[in-house]
Structures are given as C-alpha cells and as structure tokens.
Write a sequence for this structure.
C-alpha cells in the first residue's frame, strides 16, 4: 500500500492572497523534498459546508477512493464568525522513495462567517487552479451562496433528493443547468437500473418491444420521489413519450404517457420499508404480456421476468453496491464527463408534476 | 462460411435509444467457455478479470462460465479453485455476494481436447443454460491452452457443430502465441477459418487492451499539432523500447523455446510500431483501424538473409547485478539448457517504405535483465537547419525528441532547447512533461477486463486480424530462421546493463540508443 505524507500550513486571521501564497510555497517545498512528488491537475472542487457538519463531509470525501478532486477547497461557514482562518494540506500518496510518481492532493479549509459572504467569489477565486474545471458542491443548501460562486464553476454537484419537494428539486436543477453542467447524485444512483433496463431491451428481438411498453411502476424510498420521477423522465425522453401530469393518491403518483402506439401507465410509489435513498424496484410491462421487475438485492439487482407465454424467471444481475461514498466519488468523476440524457430526463420529469 | 447472426440478414438493426449517455454498453447474454481453465493464465488473469467485471456490473445480465480442462474434477471443486484464484489475484477485495453469484453460474467439463465426448458434454451444458434462461445465449470459446491444442479444439468445435448457430453469436478468442513461425500462423489461420468466419475470431494481443496503447491513438489523432510533423520530412528516427529488469523467473520452458523476438517483437512491439506509423483511419471501427495497421506492416520489407546480420542483433544476459542483488546469467537459470542459443535481447532496425516514412529508421529493442523496466516510443525530430548562436552557445542544442512512455509512468515528454539563465546565450535541453496519472481521476482497468468485454460484445478493434498476424510473421520469420541457422554462442550483456555493445551497430549516422 502506498504511504501518505502531509505538509501543512495554517493561519488565523488570514487573507486569500496569503492562502494562495502558502499553496504555492508548499508545492515548491514538496517538490524539493522529492522530485517524484507531482501535483495532480485534474479538477478543482469547492465544497461549501456548514461548519458543524464539516467533519461529516470530510469523512464522506475521504471515502471516495481514487476519485479525489486534485484540489479541494472547503469553505466552512459559521454564521457569527468574524475572523478568516485557513489550513492548507498537501498530501503525497505513493512510494516516491522507490522512483514511483507520487501525486500531491491539495486541500484548503477556509473558515468564514457572514462577514465574508459579500466577497465570497473574490475569496474563493484565487484558491482554485486556473484552467482546470471546477466542481461546486453545497450539501447543506445555501442556494444564494451557490449563485454567488457559480461564475467559478463549470459543474455543480447536487443531490435532488435533498430537496423536500420534488418539483423544487427539479426546478433547482433546471435553473443551475443554464449556468453549469449539473451532476445529480439522485441520477447517478439510478445508473445501474438504467444500464440494466437498456441491456434487457438491447437484443435484437427485444428492441421492438421498447415501443410497446404499457406500464412502468417504480417503488422508491419515501424521500426519493424525485429519483423515481427522473427514471420515468428518462424513459419518457428516450422513448419520445408525451407525458401528462401525474396525480397524487396518498404516497403514490399515477398518470399516463402517450407513445406512438399506446398509452403507458406510469406509477411512482413510496416504499417505506426501504432504508436507503433511491429506488426499491422498477417494473416495466409490454403489450405482448412481457414484464420485467428489477429489485434491489444483495450482490446486485434481482430480476424477475414473465414472458408472453406466462413463464416466470428470476436471476441476479451481478454488481457490488457502491454505497453512498461510491456514489459521491462517481459524482466527482462525472464532473469531467457529459451525460446528454440527464437534462431531457429532468425536463420530462418536471413536466409530470404540477 | 459467413457468421450467422441472431437476426435475419439485410434487416436494419432497430436502434436502442436507452443506451445513449451510458458509459457501459450492454453485452448480450453469454456463456463463456474457457479451455485450459485450470492453467496459469486462467487463474492469474482471466478469472480475476471476469470477477472484476461482475463487481462493476459489466458482465452480461445472463452470464455462465464453463471451465474445460484435462484434470478430472467436480463442478464444486472447480468453483472452489475459481474462488481461490479470484481471492488471490483480483485487483480488489471480492464482494462476497457478487462472488457467490458469479460462482453459482460456473460449471466444469473434464476431458482431453480431442475427445468428442467432451464437446457433447459441453453442448449439453450450454443447452441446459439456455433452457433455464429461456433464450439463446451467445457463446464465446476462449482458448487459453498450449498453442498446440488450438487447431485440435477448433476442429473439434467444428465437428461438434458448436461453431455456428442461427439463434445467437458464436465467438472464438485465441490467446497468443498465434504460431511460432509464418508457416504455423498460416496453418493455424487456415484451420481456424475453415471452421469460423473471421468476424467470429478474436486473437488476443493483451498489449492492445492496455489503456496506454489506446491512448496513443488519442494522442495522434485528437491533437492536430503533431500531424504536420509526423512524416519523413521532420522525423529523423523512431525508437521503440520494451525493457525488463527481471529475468525469466520460472518460465524457462516457455521462454527458451520462444526468445525475445517471438515473445515481444513479433506481436506487441510491431503493434506499437503500427500505432506510430499508421495513417489516420477513416473511422475507429475494427476494420478501418486494422486496415491501416496492415498497410504499415506490408510497407516493411521482408528482411533477406543477407540483410539480417546488419539489421538485427541478439544477445543473452550474463551474470551481473540487477534490482539490488547479484543475479545469474541466462545459461545458469534453472531449466535453461547449457548450450541454449535463445536470445534474451533482440534489437531490429526496420524501414517503413511508404510515402510518409521512407528513409526513417524504426529501431526496436527488447530484453530481459536490463537496467530497468520501461516501455516507450521515442520520436526524434530532425535537427534545425541552421544555428545562429555562437559555437559555445550551440553546444547543448539537441534535436527535439517526443517520448511516449507506456510504463511505468505513462506520459508524454517533449525535449526542447532552452536558454540557460545568464548574460550569454547558452542552450541546453529541457523536458516538458505530461503524466497521465496527474490528469485523470480514473484508474485504468486491467487489459483482460477490456478485452473479454469487447470480445463478448463482438468489437474486434483491439484484436489482431488474420492478415495482420501473418504480416507480422512475414517480417519476423526470416530473422527467426536465419538466427536458428546461425551457430552460437550469442554475444553477452551483463545483467542490469543497457544491453549488448553490438546493438550500437544497428544505429545510423548520429543516432544513439536512449538510456534505459
């Protein structure tokens, strides 16, 4: 296992210029220590967090494995704080002593208060590496501060299920997408489900049946209605459905979409027994009488199918759970990629709500 | 015979709009059969790669694995062997539930590869999978046996009518070496193509599955700045090195019958040469990319026996000091015959006789027990036509050199001339370096993970085509036979050194081997 070594600088009552100078100085110092210490230059990430939850966020970010941003700037907000304090850490990972390249990962933690919010953009700007894409993440809300920092960001990381109301979450994502590429963790949690549905209908003899879907039912964590809507929105946008607004019956949304051939019944239903955010199961049925149900299960998704002759089959779709830290790591990685299907899915999902 | 797909020919494939935006494209339900299932390659590479694909959710949604080998054993015994191999060699800690799911779909068929009863049992097994799944599954036969069994297995598959199906795709994956001479390669191609269509055949050169080799195509064809220079007018020479600091380890049996030329140059290094020298393909489809590579190989003249002493060097390592310890010479290694004339070092000077490359020497060298492990391609540009600096100032001027490093630290380095700070203009070379590891978050997948998925998907871009293999052998075969006919002993080079002094004789003009 590669070892880790840190170089640290900190100052109370500091300035953005002093922090930036410390970053530069520490980088020079580390390279002088060993020429195999090399700064990674991939992605800036600005995390705007409430100070009381800084530790929790640090733990989440520590768990993302190899998908660390190369420079992480944590803006730790505490309402009444007057003084600007900062810590800079440059960690080297790898066995540089034996000639291997050891990447340097840079972390800047800035503690700030209301007093500094008017100049938030000017404060953060010198701390990111110019010419690298910057990912902005504000897990504790603070939408107005996100707005202030948007000029720095090429991508924004959010989790639509954090918003209590699905319509607000989709409106928020839609608004942000006008300014930056949106990486939505609620969308990324559904990737294995989307991959498997796409794979099921990929064989030649099945592709035609995609156009004959008659029913889609999604069960979801009580707080993940938006995840179910994104899944419905994905099917709707990819298959060219014209979806009407869904109607709420208790904890279930129901409605229909119109495809070229027939109506499709849509249902998003809360699954109170589900302990983790996201989807519990997805069922699709076609006009021929075929149905496929994918359910969350140990060691991968559990699939149950019924063919047009009424024959049932069950099998496991292998794949290890990524866990919430894995999903966050994937979110960071996605900041460098572009998924052209999210915005159409999100737009279609929004159209299903009043 | 044409491959029979699972759909009527001439009918357009309806699109699957659900695959847009997905990083992982679906792989059709497949039964994978590994011949040589208890061998070293299967244990160290194939089974761990299959597990990692399962872990990532990248295997087909219906996937079955059948191991075929001579040793008599029960299904459960083989599952247990698979589990041990995965636990020992997987690049990540196995997830118990994924591992259990994978192993529950594993079966074992014992028997010798020429025994028709083995193929009857195999068919029963494959048919049973399909009955259970209620649908036809694609079939992929992976030949991970000694090469002498390749034609035996292929013919048996043909005899047993396992090579073609109407309901689904059948694919044949063949490990290297694909023949040990041109005649053998041709014979093997003839044997394979009498049973299978070329579109069904996937010849493995695991180098092509490495992310680093694929990056070479991105480097050349996604960056416009290099293309105007990429020809004989600006490039002086190309040097391709694949050196290892290790010896032959416990592979004496294999290595002494192969040697450095067959082990690395005939396949991997000629592939690297092709990537450097090929024309931009019209598209990155398997056929277009491979067409361009074959054109490069055809442009390399077949060496004549008279030319071979001037364009090739072979040598053997002698005792020396490598990796911080005293090490034995090749002839003293366990299992190596005392009088062996097998080369552990080979270097060639090749020409690519086409409009782009005429007159540019391509130097290839590979060897065991050299100073360090490195794989790189160094492209040296022609010197500037005139130096206006003073004589002193010009002493440090060297031609620009672009070095593509494949391992250990994958990256690109460009040697430039720069002024040393001071009152006088004195030039010295400096390097502008880019390292892939500093610029991407992702870790490269193992080559076998990529290749197994591509073969199951039917994408042959990273596999060697029949004419490509033969074109590679056409270049190397005369050297192999001339060397075989030339008595030893071979020149020696000290273990841990830069290689034999004789290798300098290959270089033209002011060319120099780069330090390893």
């Amino acid at each position: 296992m590669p070892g880790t070594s840190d170089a640290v600088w900190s100052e109370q009552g500091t300035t953005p210029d002093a922090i930036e100078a410390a970053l530069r100085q520490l980088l020079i110092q580390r390279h002088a220590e060993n020429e195999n210490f090399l700064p990674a230059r991939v992605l800036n990430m600005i995390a705007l967090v409430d100070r009381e939850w800084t530790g929790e966020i640090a733990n989440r970010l520590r768990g993302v494995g190899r998908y660390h941003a190369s420079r992480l700037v944590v803006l730790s907000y505490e309402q009444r704080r007057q003084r600007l304090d900062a810590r800079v850490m440059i960690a080297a990972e790898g066995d540089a002593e034996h000639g291997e390249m050891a990447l340097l990962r840079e972390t800047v933690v800035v503690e700030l208060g209301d007093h500094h919010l008017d100049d938030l953009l000017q404060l953060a700007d010198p701390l990111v590496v110019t010419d690298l894409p910057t990912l902005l993440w504000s897990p504790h809300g603070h939408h107005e501060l996100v707005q202030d920092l948007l000029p720095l960001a090429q991508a924004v990381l959010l989790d639509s299920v954090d918003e209590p109301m699905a319509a607000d979450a989709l409106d928020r994502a839609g608004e942000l997408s006008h300014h930056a590429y949106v990486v939505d963790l609620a969308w990324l949690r559904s990737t294995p489900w989307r991959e498997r549905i796409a794979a099921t209908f990929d064989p030649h003899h099945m592709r035609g049946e995609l156009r004959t879907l008659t029913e889609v039912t999604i069960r979801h964590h009580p707080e993940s209605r938006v995840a179910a809507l994104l899944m419905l929105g994905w099917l709707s946008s990819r298959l060219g459905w014209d979806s009407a607004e869904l109607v709420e019956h208790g904890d279930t949304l129901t409605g229909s979409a119109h495809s070229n051939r027939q109506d499709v019944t849509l249902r998003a239903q809360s699954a109170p027994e589900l302990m983790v955010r996201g989807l519990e199961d997805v069922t699709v049925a076609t006009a021929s009488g075929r149905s496929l149900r994918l359910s969350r299960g140990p060691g991968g998704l559990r699939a149950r199918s019924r063919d047009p002759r009424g024959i049932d089959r069950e099998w496991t779709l292998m794949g290890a759970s990524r866990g919430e830290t894995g999903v966050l790591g994937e979110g960071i990685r996605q900041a460098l990629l572009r998924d052209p299907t999210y915005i159409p899915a999100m737009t279609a999902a929004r159209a299903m709500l009043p | 015979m044409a491959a029979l797909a699972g759909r009527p020919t001439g009918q357009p494939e309806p699109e699957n709009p659900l695959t847009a935006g997905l990083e992982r494209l679906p792989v059709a339900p497949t039964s994978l059969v590994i011949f040589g299932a208890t061998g070293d390659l299967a244990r160290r590479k194939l089974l761990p790669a299959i597990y990692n694909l399962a872990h990532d959710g990248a295997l087909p949604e219906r996937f079955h694995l059948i191991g075929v080998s001579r040793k008599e054993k029960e299904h459960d015994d083989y599952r247990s062997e698979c589990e041990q191999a995965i636990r020992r060699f997987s690049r990540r800690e196995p997830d118990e539930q994924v591992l259990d799911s994978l192993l529950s779909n594993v079966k074992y068929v014992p028997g010798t590869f020429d025994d028709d009863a083995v193929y009857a049992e195999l068919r029963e097994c494959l048919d049973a999978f399909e009955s259970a799944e209620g649908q036809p599954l694609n079939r992929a036969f992976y030949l991970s046996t000694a090469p002498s069994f390749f034609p035996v297995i292929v013919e048996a598959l043909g005899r047993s009518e396992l090579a073609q199906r109407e309901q689904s795709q059948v694919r044949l994956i063949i490990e290297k070496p694909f023949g040990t001479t041109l005649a053998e390669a041709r014979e093997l191609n003839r044997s394979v193509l009498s049973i299978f269509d070329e579109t069904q055949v996937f010849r493995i050169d695991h180098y092509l599955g490495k992310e680093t080799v694929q990056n070479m195509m991105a480097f050349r064809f996604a960056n416009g700045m290099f293309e105007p220079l990429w020809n004989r007018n600006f490039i002086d020479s190309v040097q391709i090195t694949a050196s290892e600091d290790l010896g032959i380890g416990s592979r004496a049996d294999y290595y002494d019958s192969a040697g450095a030329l067959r082990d690395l140059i005939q396949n991997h290094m000629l592939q690297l040469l092709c990537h450097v020298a090929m024309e931009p393909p019209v598209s990155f489809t398997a056929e277009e990319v491979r067409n361009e590579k074959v054109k490069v190989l055809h442009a390399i003249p077949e060496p004549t026996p008279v030319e071979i002493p001037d364009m090739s060097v072979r040598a053997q390592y002698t005792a020396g000091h490598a990796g911080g310890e005293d090490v034995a010479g090749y002839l003293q290694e366990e299992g190596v015959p005392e009088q062996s004339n097998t080369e552990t070092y080979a270097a060639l000077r090749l020409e690519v006789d086409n409009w782009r490359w005429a007159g540019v020497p391509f130097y290839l060298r590979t060897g065991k027990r050299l100073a360090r492990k490195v794989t790189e391609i160094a492209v040296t540009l022609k010197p500037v036509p005139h130096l206006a600096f003073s004589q002193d100032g010009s002493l440090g001027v060297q031609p620009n050199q672009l070095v593509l490093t494949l391992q250990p630290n994958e990256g690109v380095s460009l040697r430039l001339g720069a002024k040393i700070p001071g009152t006088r203009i004195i030039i010295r070379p400096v390097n502008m370096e880019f390292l892939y590891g500093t610029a991407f978050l992702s870790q490269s997948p193992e080559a076998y993970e990529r290749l197994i998925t591509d073969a199951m998907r039917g994408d042959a871009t990273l596999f060697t085509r029949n004419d490509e293999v033969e074109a590679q052998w056409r270049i190397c075969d005369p050297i192999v036979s001339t060397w075989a006919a030339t008595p030893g002993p071979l020149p020696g080079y000290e273990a841990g050194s830069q290689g034999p002094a004789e290798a300098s004789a290959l270089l033209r003009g002011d060319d120099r081997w780069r330090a390893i």
Q: What stands out?
A: Chain A touches chain B through 56 residues (CB under 8 Å). The longest strand of chain A covers residues 102-112. The longest helix of chain A spans residues 16-33.
